[in-house]
Amino acid sequence: MTVELNCRGQACPAPVMQVRDILAAENPAAIAVLVDNEAARENVSRFLTHQGFQVTVEAMGNDFKVTGGGRDAACEVMNETELAGLAGGGKKILVVIGTDRLGHGDDGLGAGLMLNFVKTLKEMGPDLWRLVMVNNGVKLAVAGAESLPVLQDLAAVGVSILVCGTCLNHFDLLDKKRVGETTNMLDIVTSMQVADSVINI
Amino acid sequence: MIESPIRLTQTVKGAGCAAKLPPGDLDRALCGLDLPVDDNLLVGLERADDAGVYRVSDEIALVQTLDFFPPMVDDPYQFGRIAAANALSDVYAMGGTPKTAMNIVAFPAKTLDLAILRQIIEGGLSVLREAGVVLVGGHTIDDPELKYGLSVTGYVHPAKILTKKRLRIGDRLILTKPLGSGIVCTAIKAGLATDDVTELVIANMATLNRVAAETMADFPVSACTDITGFGLMGHLAEMVVDSGCGLRIDSATLPHYPEALEWAAMGLIPAGAYNNKKFRGKFVTFAESVGQPRRDLCFDPQTSGGLLITVAAGEADSLLLALKAGGVAAATIIGEVVAEPREIILVE
Predict the structure, then answer these.
(1) Domain holding B244: CATH number?
(2) Cβ(A163)–Cβ(A181) under 8 Å?
(3) Which ipTM was obtained for this model?
(4) Is B224 a catalytic residue?
(5) Last residue of a domain, one of B111, B139, B160
(6) Are both B154 and B253 inside the same structural domain?
(7) pTM of the entire structure?
(8) CB nearest B258 (choices: A13, A50, A182)
(9) Mutate to test the interface with A, among B179, B192, B201, B204 (most CBs of A within 10 A)
(10) B63 CA to chain A: closest CA distance, Å?
(11) What is the C-alpha separation between A44 and B242, in angstroms, rounded?
């Protein structure tokens, strides 16, 4: 069922926040949002796209109707994924990388092992869903890192890469990040919740 | 951060420089005005620069500017600091030294406690003191929506005025503060920003462009402006118009607040960003590889943003080092002045 929301007369960010609250409370398959300004139209469209909806916009006089649908299909895909999971394939694997060295002991050895680890991750195939880089792990995703081209290749085949913004900031590396999206703790925690299995390195 | 019982940002519609009248509207209202002519007016309204400059003698020219806006943060003291840093910035961007200032206040005396007004003014004064600027007066009106700012007067040597023009091909572009303050302030308004990023954006907005301006004075700088309400692209567009050259920006280098791109992807973008894009979008060409959030960042209206400095290529690294040594930590080389495409900003 489509949930309808009237956000006319509201300035940003109020419409986006209302849509977010409705999604959180009712988790509708489709939603139609009425707004009366271009900024709200664009922002609500971006938010719904970000949340996995197929978005269409319709002009209605001076107003706009932003409709998000297609989440049914997403749910079906998820169900198929779950079925495939039962059959032993199609899992969502999340790898959390919190270091630039693999294992404890010799640092030089650890750095080499980590590069090899990142290179070998692709053997997980389509099951490899997302990498989350935190703490020293963010150093693998910055300009000059040997692992950078490997991570860029993974990103190119559709592996989602999230890099902790607080950590980049801490190491003064915000400008140097060359792969993945800068992320926050909420996304990291949500990723862990959604993943079928979480591997911590 | 001092907790304010009233959330100032919830009492107003626009926030900070994002509350500017859309640039196209302003042009429509002002085009064709019959402006007084004076040989001593070195930089006037027709040039759309950061501040007006009027020659008093061969040694001294007056730099005049004013800025005011509704609050973009909840803490009155910090709002005062940010408004003052923002108002002074135009003088620094012209290569000048600010000397005197006057308060401009619109205050809803019926709904807000006068103690809030006092905190705002105290915040402004603290930044004026830091800048070595004296407060000489002000004007306050009763208004349903809170606004604060300052009119600032400074000096500049007539031969050392820095405008948005005179770009030299090959010059490097240096930006001195992170982008995304409009997006972050929208996230603050939405209650999504953490205390860490809120404090970071407030600290940056309340930081004077004084050190950046004093540092660049020792280098072969060809042009300068400050990045405020029209966003990075809006202000760069003012630089390339009628310049005969173009700009190439490396979007991967753009300094920004940690979560700004993610919040942009979520649609936490101030309306001003869309106005900026509508008005200045035609000057900008994005490479396909530049993602939507980064494009939105390029048009995000900044409150009290950094200086955008164009400097001779051979001196760019030295200026960057000098800026960082002076504490301008976010300073980054973001692009260069190019011959082609003419009068276009190419974002790669």
Answers:
(1) 3.90.650.10
(2) yes
(3) 0.83
(4) no
(5) B160
(6) no
(7) 0.74
(8) A182
(9) B192
(10) 34
(11) 37
